[in-house]
């Protein structure tokens, strides 16, 4: 409630403005961490100077009109704003207006002449493997090559307080406003469509029609101002991009225009969230674990266009998302306080306010008000005083002012008498407004169609969402075809106007190849054959094992319940079988061990005693829900005392209801334990992949996995970067390094580039050399979780950082060749294998590198694992740098075989083990103790503008290497 005729003084309530001025506390008391872990080696004897570090402070050339294929962050004229960002396969366009604050990368692009080019496909695709035919959820789009589309800049304004102001998307339905004007002016304007932002598109030239149009809707005057033509694209440009053998302008502008066109007819009946669509009138599911939670599930679909080897295609997939329910805030807050705020005098205690302010969702959600007869949308900052106490100052017409409470003001201004005036007001801020507003809780509603972050959902809610998202291949295939047919594209008036058609009679068919799996080698060269992505370890000895002389089993209670008689019986059976089973696989484990039962507060002392006793290993059994206990165990064991531990859940042990299942569970425990203690479970020989290259006999490979993990924005915690590298010739033993990184002043930016990639890889290279007494000649990096918009940043920073690290370590020796591969596990392309009259999952080892992939760049889809539930989602690989000069067959086979090297299981996994380990390290490192930040650079706040500063550099990012104890830092504690 923010009216021009009165002003609110600052709240006197201490619960308001939460989070401001608070600094994180870090415990620096740990004395056991090896401080030399990351000391830069002496490089004075090197006769070659390291390459100059990449200057990521180069100002983005935002006004360049030329954009080439290798410029993955395309430079465009200022008028294009965010809508001109490049498009990645299976990544929807972000068409949000500049007014929307985004979590964005802060590393600016470098000028074109300094950029490392993205490599091209080395051949026409792979040839090895059994050729099969698959369906994919891409549909061919047909467009005339002579078609041209014109883009016009427009402004949608509202007449407010005697002047024209921008009609903010959060407060006004811009799309509806423009549609009503276009309908009224149908005789004066040609066929046009609007992107709900700042652009209008037309096949024809508007010429003298570029003027201002006004309309009155619900007593509000709106204005559509059509400015000059800002861009013109042709379909022929896209086909040149597809057919050309040299870099040329990317057609992302055309794809953006066509995606906007495809949304026009469904905007009135569907909620459009980027490229996801949900029926407005559907019944949301709020039963089961969602009952009385404020959340509900909605079914919808995903739709996006891509440029592929065969031209433009449209991808359609099913979607299930969780949304906040459109309920009043009184009900919403009652749910989280677990009491009805309407009773007990309708008051809220200071403790309850503090508890609510600690909620992550309260900062994320937006609320709306309706009492002013116009929808107003706000973000919550905190709480004010009670509505009958919080003062407002009213400016009179003669310049005098008077004070009254919020409750009194509402009666005088809107004739609204509050039912619960003793409840506090919400301290809110409106986008673009400078003053805070204090609004009674009972007048606020949770804005509809806000997606709930999965981290805010309970385990049961996430399980229910997954259950409703996981569809059998045949069910997903049929639902996708049903969505495509219901969309009725070929009768869409907008598509007809462009003579555009989409082949929705049948999914696109593509060729796939099933690659040969590797042989898994155990001790004494015993071979285990892979069948349907799995193999049996039965009868085999682990290749290299350790002897465990002293170990302990510790039961950790959650404080809510004691282990029952049945629990103790199951644990006794587990304890008896563990040494016996591990011995069958070659692990000599002392059958005599001590058992303890402790509570959470005794964990640190227990691990201290474990370390002091000389034990090599601690097995912790968690009883009940113990996330805090798990984190404490890992932090104390790995950082403070340097001892290997393994945690098991009593509930999981209890589920192994027969000896066979329990034996399989212990088999998994044995593999993890052996790897963590320095053993080798099994190996895969990669020599067969390079049989055609005799010179490869002397090659020494090093495999690196890297990932950056981001948390929910409201948590204001750092991103965690993890780098994992192999340190054995068999590529089965890995070590890791990690760091945390965040912008200064805790701003809401995420950094995709790993700032400390050079010191981390340098240290990993040193360990590799010390372990093997030789230098790697070829380094293959698998980088997880990066969208196409950041490809060039990674080339200019991480690839360059790795080269610099090699220069520091190798000295005068020949430098290794590097191949840098991006892995994308979350995308919306699906494949279906026809099997007679049925649709099934494709086989493990299926690779697709034609038809729907990039026209020239080196990318492919690889389904390395067997499907467990629902429709398999294969991984998408995009090669940025290929100094090793891998052929398609070589890299695809190598990647597939590396998916069989995860020490934690006897099955192929979704991506190479190094990348999976990096993801695990990033997860664990979130709970480690960190050192205080050392930073000297600061920049002004740009939180409200939502714009990235032109001179923002990596130096504006705070980062700290995360240390673990010297006893375990070079062990596989993360498996």
From TrEMBL:
Stretches assigned to the Piwi domain: 618-930
Gene3D superfamilies linked to this entry: 3.40.50.2300, paz domain, Ribonuclease H-like superfamily/Ribonuclease H
SMART domains noted in UniProt: Piwi
Region of interest: Disordered: 1-50, 67-101
Ranges of compositional bias, category Basic and acidic residues: 24-34, 82-94
Residue span(s) of domain PAZ: 328-448
Domain of life (superkingdom): Eukaryota
InterPro entries: ArgoL2, PAZ_dom, PAZ_dom_sf, Piwi, RNaseH-like_sf, RNaseH_sf
Protein name, entry field: Uncharacterized protein
Source organism of the structure: Adineta steineri
């Amino acid at each position: 409630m923010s009216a021009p005729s009165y002003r609110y003084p600052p709240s006197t309530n201490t619960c308001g403005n939460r989070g401001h001025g608070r600094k994180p506390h870090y415990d620096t008391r740990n004395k056991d961490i090896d401080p030399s872990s990351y000391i830069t080696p002496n490089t004075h004897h090197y006769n070659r100077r390291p390459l100059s570090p990449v200057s990521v402070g180069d100002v983005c050339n935002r006004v360049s009109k030329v954009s080439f294929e290798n410029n993955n962050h395309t430079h465009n004229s200022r008028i294009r704003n965010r809508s001109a960002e490049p498009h990645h396969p299976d990544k929807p366009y972000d068409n949000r207006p500049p007014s929307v604050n985004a979590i964005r990368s802060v590393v600016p692009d470098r000028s074109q002449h300094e950029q490392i080019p993205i490599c091209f496909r080395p051949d026409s695709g792979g040839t090895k493997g059994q050729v099969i035919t698959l369906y994919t959820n891409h549909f061919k789009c047909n467009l005339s090559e002579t078609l041209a589309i014109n883009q016009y800049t427009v402004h949608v304004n509202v007449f407010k307080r005697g002047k024209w102001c921008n009609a903010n998307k959060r407060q006004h339905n811009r799309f509806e406003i423009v549609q009503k004007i276009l309908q009224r002016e149908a005789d004066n304007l040609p066929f046009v469509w609007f992107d709900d932002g700042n652009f209008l598109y037309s096949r024809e030239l508007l010429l003298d029609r570029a003027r201002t149009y006004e309309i009155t809707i619900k007593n509000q005057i709106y204005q559509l101002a059509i400015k000059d033509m800002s861009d013109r694209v042709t379909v022929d440009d896209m086909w040149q991009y597809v057919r050309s053998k040299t870099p040329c302008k990317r057609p992302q502008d055309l794809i953006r225009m066509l995606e906007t066109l495809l949304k026009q007819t469904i905007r009135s009946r569907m909620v459009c969230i980027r490229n996801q669509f949900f029926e407005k009138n559907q019944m949301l599911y709020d039963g089961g674990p969602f009952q009385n939670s404020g959340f509900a599930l909605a079914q919808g679909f995903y739709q996006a266009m891509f440029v592929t080897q065969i031209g433009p295609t449209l991808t359609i997939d099913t979607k299930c998302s969780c949304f906040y329910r459109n309920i009043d805030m009184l009900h919403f807050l009652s749910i989280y306080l677990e009491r009805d705020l309407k009773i007990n005098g309708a008051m809220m205690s200071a403790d309850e306010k503090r508890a609510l302010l600690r909620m992550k969702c309260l900062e994320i959600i937006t609320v709306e008000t309706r009492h002013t007869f116009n929808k107003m949308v706000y973000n919550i900052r905190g709480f004010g005083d009670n509505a009958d106490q919080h003062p407002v100052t009213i400016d009179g017409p003669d310049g005098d002012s008077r004070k009254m409470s919020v409750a009194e003001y509402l009666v005088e201004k809107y004739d609204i008498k509050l039912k619960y005036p003793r409840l506090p007001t919400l301290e809110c801020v409106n986008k673009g407004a400078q003053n805070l507003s204090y609004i009674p809780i009972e007048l606020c509603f949770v804005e509809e169609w806000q997606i709930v972050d999965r981290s805010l959902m309970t385990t049961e809610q996430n399980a229910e969402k997954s259950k409703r998202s996981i569809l059998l291949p045949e069910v997903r295939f049929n639902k996708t075809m049903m969505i495509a047919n219901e969309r009725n594209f070929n009768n869409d008036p907008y598509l007809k106007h462009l003579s555009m058609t989409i082949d929705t009679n049948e999914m696109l068919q593509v060729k796939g190849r099933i690659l040969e799996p590797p042989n898994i080698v155990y001790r004494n060269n015993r071979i285990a054959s892979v069948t349907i992505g799995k193999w049996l370890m039965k009868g085999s000895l682990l290749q290299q094992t350790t002897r465990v002389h002293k170990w302990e089993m510790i039961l950790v209670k959650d404080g809510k319940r004691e282990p029952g008689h049945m629990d103790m019986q199951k644990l006794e059976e587990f304890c008896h079988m563990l040494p016996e089973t591990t011995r069958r696989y070659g692990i000599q484990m002392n059958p005599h061990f001590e058992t303890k039962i402790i509570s959470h507060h005794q964990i640190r002392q227990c691990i201290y005693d474990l370390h002091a006793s000389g034990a090599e290993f601690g097995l912790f059994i968690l009883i009940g829900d113990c996330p805090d206990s798990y984190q404490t165990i890992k932090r104390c064991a790995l950082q403070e005392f340097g001892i290997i531990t393994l945690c098991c859940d009593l509930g999981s042990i209890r589920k192994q209801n027969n000896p066979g299942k329990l034996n399989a569970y212990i088999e998994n425990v044995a593999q993890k334990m052996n790897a963590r203690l320095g053993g080798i479970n099994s190996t895969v020989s990669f020599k067969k992949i390079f049989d055609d290259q005799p010179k490869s006999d002397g090659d020494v490979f090093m495999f690196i996995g890297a990932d950056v993990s981001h948390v929910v924005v409201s948590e204001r915690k750092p991103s965690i970067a993890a780098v994992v590298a192999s340190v054995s010739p068999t590529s089965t033993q890995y070590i890791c390094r990690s760091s945390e990184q965040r912008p200064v002043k805790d701003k809401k930016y995420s950094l995709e580039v790993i700032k400390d990639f050079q010191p981390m890889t340098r240290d990993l290279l040193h360990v590799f050399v010390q372990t093997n007494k030789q230098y790697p000649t070829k380094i293959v990096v698998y980088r997880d979780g990066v969208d196409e918009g950041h490809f060039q940043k990674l080339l200019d920073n991480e690839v360059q950082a790795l080269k610099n690290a090699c220069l520091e370590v190798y000295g005068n020796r020949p430098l290794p060749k590097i191949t840098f591969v991006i892995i994308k596990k979350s995308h919306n392309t699906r494949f279906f294998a026809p099997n007679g009259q049925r649709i099934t999952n494709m086989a493990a080892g299926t690779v697709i590198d034609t038809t729907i992939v990039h026209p020239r760049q080196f990318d492919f889809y690889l389904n390395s694992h067997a499907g467990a539930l629902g429709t398999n989602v294969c991984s998408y690989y995009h090669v940025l740098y290929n100094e090793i000069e891998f052929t398609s067959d070589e890299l695809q086979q190598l990647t597939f075989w590396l998916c069989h090297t995860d020490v934690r299981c006897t099955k192929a996994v979704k991506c190479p083990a190094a990348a999976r380990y990096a993801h695990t390290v990033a997860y664990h490192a979130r709970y480690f103790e960190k050192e205080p930040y050392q930073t000297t650079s600061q920049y002004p706040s740009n939180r409200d503008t939502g714009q990235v500063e032109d001179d923002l550099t990596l130096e504006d990012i705070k980062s700290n290497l995360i240390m673990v104890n010297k006893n375990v830092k070079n062990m596989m504690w993360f498996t």
